[in-house]
Design brief:
The protein is mainly alpha-helical. Helix content is 58%, strand content 4%. It has a single domain, classed as DksA, coiled-coil domain (Four Helix Bundle (Hemerythrin (Met), subunit A)), CATH 1.20.120. A two-stranded antiparallel sheet has the order 1-2. β1 and β2 form a beta hairpin. The two termini are 23 Å apart. The structure holds zinc ion.
Length: 106
């Protein structure tokens, strides 16, 4: 993946992370990110979305970004562009129904 494209995806991931975390910042008081209180700040669905974003950022660190976490194939470029935190190729998603997090690209 070209460096500029990689940066673009990284930026999209960081933007997504910020918007998911936004409800946790009230008057510069930062909510706990673990423990029981954390659950009150973020819905289960948003927690899954956030986890997907963190996992994608981790894959950027380890050099596995853009590869399917199931079969290791390079994820289609168009697919990755529309959903930068996607972690499965279309084939694996179709076979195993991984769409939960990925459908919510907005
Ligand atoms: Zn796959």
């Amino acid at each position: 993946m070209a460096r500029s494209k990689w940066k673009q995806h990284q930026y999209a991931l960081l933007r997504r992370r910020r918007s998911l975390l936004a409800p946790m910042f009230v008057d510069e008081v930062v909510a706990p990110t673990t423990g029981p209180d954390y659950e009150a700040w973020i819905s289960p669905a948003d927690r899954r979305r956030l986890a997907a974003v963190y996992e994608a950022l981790d894959r950027m660190d380890t050099g596995n970004y853009g590869l399917c976490t199931s079969c290791g194939t390079a994820i289609d470029r168009t697919r990755l562009e529309s959903i930068p935190w996607v972690n499965h190729c279309q084939g694996c998603e179709d076979r195993r129904g991984y769409a939960e997090v990925e459908l919510d690209a907005a």
